[in-house]
Write a structure and sequence with these properties.
about 290 residues, alpha+beta, 11 helices
Length: about 290
């Protein structure tokens, strides 16, 4: 985990030594979760009923494998924050937010969790002059400055990462894959976002199995394109298409996502993400009750 993860826990402890995870509950309705649960001493089976799967711990419906939830907010909107990293072997590129009850869109809030919280407080202070939030923001700014964490919402590193992205994807933050000097590594899915969403909508709206089979045909042709791309080392196409179908959502697409994403991650050397997507789709839920621990 990055340095800001641990330092933010120290900051939370300075605000609430007994329960750092709830240090921001009263003022911002935010709780530290995910890997922070381990720092808080939570472990073991949830209610003693089943063995916890850490790959699913606080994994919301639209969270791609690249996202790791670290903060939960409003349960109604299923608002949460998470680190986003393109490769599991790398440090996070930035912190994003998502409201899973609304859509799949991921919004970058800064390079680290201090910047993300500062961004959220800025938004809240535009709506209401809450003195407790202002006081909290001043404390956060002082702590971040003392420990050299940027509070910019768009840093030079984030801009450099954006330039490496080969496509946008439905979730909005793009995909980064290795592309050599000859352009080998990525080729685009041969459908615009709007036309591809229309294809998926037809499948989801199908009322009979026969109709669904017919509507799946154009998508299966695109899957064939991915197979050709993989043969020619353009692994990014399968990743893009798989993530877009995952982000569109729907159990009817789980089988095709499992055909695309685990292989794409394995070909890219991101095997950990193949395990994550398999675990997620085994129990993918529209819910805010996503803890795997007591």
């Amino acid at each position: 985990m990055p340095d800001d993860f641990y330092e933010f826990w120290e900051f939370a402890k300075s605000l609430n030594s007994k329960c750092p995870s709830a240090a921001f509950a009263a003022s911002l309705d935010l709780h530290l979760v995910g890997p922070y649960d381990l720092l808080a001493g939570k472990k073991g089976q949830k209610n003693g009923k089943r063995k916890p799967n850490y790959l699913r711990h606080w994994r919301y419906y639209y969270d791609p494998p690249e996202m790791l939830t670290i903060v939960k907010g409003d349960d109604q909107n299923q608002f949460h924050l998470g680190y986003y990293r393109d490769d599991p072997k790398e440090m996070p590129a930035f912190v994003v937010s998502n409201s899973a009850a609304e859509n799949c869109v991921l919004k970058p809030l800064g390079e680290n969790i201090f910047a993300a919280f500062n961004s959220l407080m800025e938004e809240k202070l535009k709506k209401t002059a809450d003195k407790s939030v202002l006081e909290l923001q001043n404390k956060l700014k002082s702590w971040a400055k003392a420990h050299h964490f940027s509070l910019e919402t768009k840093t030079a590193k984030m801009k450099a990462r954006d330039k490496k992205a080969v496509c946008k994807c439905f979730h909005g933050v793009g995909v980064v894959v290795p592309v050599d000097k000859n352009g080998i590594g990525y080729r685009p899915v041969p459908e615009s976002h709007s036309s591809f969403k229309n294809l998926l909508k037809k499948i989801k709206d199908s009322t009979t199995e026969e109709e669904r089979k017919v509507n799946f045909d154009p998508v299966m042709e695109l899957v064939m394109c991915v197979q050709f791309a993989n043969d020619e080392c353009d692994y990014g196409e399968g990743l893009e298409m798989g993530l877009n179908i995952f982000s569109y959502g729907g159990e009817v697409f789980h089988k095709i996502v499992l055909n695309l994403l685990p292989l794409a991650y394995q070909l890219l050397g991101r095997n950990e993400y193949a395990d994550v997507i398999k675990a997620h789709l085994e129990r993918r839920r529209h819910s805010a009750e996503l803890s795997e621990l007591d």
